[in-house]
Amino acid sequence: MALDNKIHTLYWIIILAGIITILALLLEKPHETFIEVFIPLEDPIERFAPHSMINDSDIFVYDDYVVVKGNFTHYSGFQGTKSMVPTFDKGHDAIYVSPQNESDIYIGDIILYENEYRRVHRVIDIDSDDQGWYAITMGDSTDIEDPNKVRFEHIEAVMVIIIY
Questions:
Q1: Residue 97 is inside which H or E element, if any?
Q2: By the 8 A CB rule, do 125 and 146 touch?
Q3: Bond prior to 86 in cis (omega within 30° of 0)
Q4: For the whole model, what pTM was predicted?
Q5: Four-way CATH pick for 56-163: 3.10.150.10, 3.40.640.10, 3.30.70.100, 2.10.109.10
Q6: Is the pLDDT of residue 42 over 80?
Q7: In what order do the strands lie in the sheet with 72-77?
């Protein structure tokens, strides 16, 4: 019976040694091997960047200041609503231009508008209905569209510069 116990113990030692070896091989990460893993988000929201409204030739950088030529119409800071974090937040400032018509507004632009409330949100869609052109907006920190269509006459300005 003592021999049976020794064989049984030896059997389990061999099994455990095999498991430990297999785990060590599976967990070993060679230093020169990199594995890129892409995990798609469920129903990701497509985000767009604003279109360029300032030409490179209109930007002048000096040792202690910067000059940007343009037809700027608004300058403002932000309240701490957190609706546009991480793009900007309270304590940041922005410079805007006034759009002349609907074709000056693009998906991805950040606009200052007032219909129900005064907001600064990103345009996520542009369309028209029986009342004409409109934009759909949304804050960058949410996945929920703003409740009202933004008509061109509600838009005061398009953001062109953020000062952090």
A1: strand 93-97
A2: no
A3: yes
A4: 0.71
A5: 2.10.109.10
A6: no
A7: 72-77, 93-97, 155-163, 110-114, 118-129, 132-138
